[in-house]
Design goal:
The complex is a heterodimer of chains A (about 500) and B (about 100). Chain A has about 500 residues and is an alpha/beta fold. Chain A has 16 helices and 24 strands. Chain A has a nine-stranded mixed β-sheet, sandwiched between helices. Chain A has a four-stranded parallel β-sheet with strand order 4-3-5-6. The N and C termini of chain A lie far apart (about 55 Å). The model of chain A has no long low-confidence stretch (mean pLDDT about 95). By secondary structure, chain B is mostly beta strands. Chain B contains no helices and ten strands. The chains are: A alpha/beta (about 500), B mainly beta (about 100). Chains A and B meet through helix 1, helix 7, helix 8, strand 12 and strand 13 of A and strand 7 of B.
């Protein structure tokens, strides 16, 4: 099935409803479809359509124009340098790059075929395009670079059939009420941005974009636009709490808030639950390679935790239950399937799972299972707990140690604002545990105190042997800690 | 007809269009309003008339399935003729109460 079919169905159902909006600029579903066909004419002859920019109409138009032209859409991080963009674009071949003026000029000077984003959107606005929805579901719909927290980023290949399976399997067509509106502030080059667009279009929810996330602007947009639904990453959640704490007005129109993309500190989640007691919360876990969400911890689970159920409170740190359309297995080092409660590598299979990378061999096994390289466990009730990336696992004296467990403990110290735990080389133990701590403003903490604090909750072999302090930690824009940078800095300093 | 996922079919007797989401391993006869569903480009033979006794037509965006056969169709255009497989009505799949993660 082709992505254009999803939009075509929306047009059949509600052509004149606003589908996407950025500030005062809007496109109805009918205008988006006609505009995509018109804009596809710019793409003629290109092998891919890349987009370098913030959230704007060029993003939905670009996604569907690429589908209309039968080429993949490649959203790229607009914060990358000209050199980095050049390196990512070069292997794609003859690509049309849609970018805003200054970036477009810089890439044109490097020999790329570029089109100013404003002109691209103007073509779409002029409309009048039409075409037959392609039957093909096999073609690559989107090439999406993974976050690259543990290695150089790779481009995941998401085919039309992966994305349409995800949408059809997880949301009900046209189920949104006429007053529903979603605020999207995750960037367009992240799988959550892609999933948000497709799911909400299919649901029939008006999509309101923030060009880039900014907490006061996000809060103002929720209030000003009567936003009912939103998805954010944990770093955004923390900043939203600060704004709400300061003004005390709340978010009366907001009904549901989902969060994901990285581990959410327990303290942040507790604050959200206290500040927004009437909002339904959902935690989503997924990967770029799985067309986004594969497990959810839903509003009922959050409510039970809020009501003090101890089992539910423990599950707040889980990713919830696996979607009925997806299978998950936890496997040990020999590839054996592990029983409930035992941690190992998470493998996943389903129609939305791609697991394929451009120009590389797919890591799927013979039965179609994809190794996520995430470590975790399934509990007896089917709740999935994520411990972190397998590549981040510290191996000290033969013992596998997940940094997240130690970070959770250190974060409970009142003097700690942020921390990162990594393994550094050790002649005796193979690796030893190092923590880099960002103290809370005004707090005084020292290494010995934090080590003693950690030992009260952790076995001796898991307490950090080295504690250093830093003014800040490196994060991706979507809230993922860049552990390999922390580790490299520590090794360089020692 | 041997179906394949992603295949588009349309009604011979009304406006209904569907796409195959899940296809059974063997050949089946899928119909709408009493006449066989047609593939892209196929024209209805003369004389097909809608049989209203088979039930209501499909609704846009709803999925129609026979779990025993492993057949699932997604309605991409509503129509007035009921969807059938081997002469039996296809049942609408219930909305899944999944929490929205997007």
């Amino acid at each position: 099935m082709n992505l254009l079919l999803l939009l075509d169905m929306v047009v059949a159902g509600r052509a004149d409803d606003v589908a996407v909006q950025v500030g005062d600029e809007r496109l109805t579903a009918g205008e988006l479809l006609a505009g995509a066909w018109s804009a596809a004419e710019h793409v003629a002859g290109a092998s891919a359509l890349a987009y370098v920019g913030t959230n704007g109409l060029a993003f939905p138009v670009g996604l569907f124009a690429a589908a209309a032209a039968g080429v993949p859409f490649v959203p790229l991080n607009y914060r990358l340098s000209e050199d980095q963009l050049h390196d990512l674009l070069t292997p794609l071949g003859d690509t049309l790059v849609v970018a805003r003026g200054d970036v477009a000029a810089a890439l044109a000077a490097r020999g790329h075929r570029v089109l100013d984003a404003a002109r691209f959107v103007a073509t779409a606005r002029a409309g009048g395009g039409a075409g037959e929805v392609p039957a093909d579901g096999e073609g690559a719909a989107v090439l999406l670079y993974t976050s690259g927290t543990t290695a150089a980023p790779k481009a995941a290949v998401l085919r039309h059939r992966h994305l349409t399976s995800y949408v059809i399997g997880t949301v009900e067509f046209g189920a949104a009420g006429p007053d529903e509106a979603v605020l999207v502030s995750v960037p367009p080059y992240h799988v959550a941005g892609l999933a948000n667009l497709l799911s909400n279009l299919y649901l029939g929810r008006r999509i309101v974009y923030l060009a880039q996330f900014d907490a006061p602007a996000w809060v103002a947009a929720v209030r000003g636009e009567g936003i009912t639904n939103a998805m954010v990453v944990p770093t955004m959640l923390a900043r939203i709490c600060e704004v709400l704490d300061d003004d005390g007005v709340g978010l009366p129109s907001l009904r549901a808030l989902s969060y994901g993309g990285a581990r959410t500190p327990a303290a942040v989640l507790q604050r959200v639950m206290a500040l927004l007691p009437d909002v339904e919360l959902t935690n989503a876990y997924g990967l770029t390679e799985t067309s986004s969400t594969i497990a959810v911890l839903g509003p009922d689970d959050h409510r039970a935790a809020r009501d003090g159920d101890p089992a539910a409170t423990a599950r707040l740190s889980s990713a919830g239950r696996v979607l009925p359309t997806v299978e998950v297995e936890v496997r040990g080092p020999l590839g054996e399937t592990l029983p409930a409660g035992e941690p190992g590598e998470i493998w996943v299979r389903g129609e939305q799972v791609s697991g394929e990378y451009a120009g590389r061999e797919a890591p799927l096994d013979a039965e179609g299972w994809f190794p996520t390289r995430d470590r975790g466990l399934l509990d007896a009730d089917g709740y999935l707990f994520i411990e972190g990336r397998t590549d981040d696992t510290i191996i000290r004296g033969g013992e596998n140690i997940a940094p997240a467990e130690i970070e959770e403990v250190l974060m409970q110290h009142p003097g700690v604002a942020q921390c990162a735990v990594v393994g550094v080389p050790d002649d005796v133990w193979g690796q030893r545990i190092a923590a880099v701590v960002v103290p809370r403003p005004g707090a005084t903490v020292d290494a010995a105190e934090l080590q003693a604090f950690a030992r009260r909750s952790l076995r001796g072999s898991k307490a950090p042997e080295l504690v250093t302090f830093a003014a800040s930690l490196p994060f991706t824009e979507t809230g993922k800690l860049l552990r390999r940078v922390v580790q490299a800095d520590l090794i360089a300093a020692s | 007809m041997k179906l394949r996922p992603g295949q588009k079919l349309h009604s011979a007797v009304c406006d209904a269009q569907v796409v195959v989401v899940k296809a059974p391993s063997g050949a089946v006869e899928v119909g709408c309003g009493g006449a066989p569903l047609l593939e892209d480009g196929q024209q209805p033979e003369g004389g097909a008339a809608l049989d209203p006794s088979l039930g209501d037509g499909p609704l846009l965006g709803k999925r129609y399935a026979d779990d025993d056969l492993g057949l699932e169709l997604l309605c991409t255009r509503a129509g007035t003729g009921a969807l059938t497989v081997d002469g039996r009505p296809l049942l609408v799949k219930g909305a899944k109460p999944l929490p929205s993660s997007d």
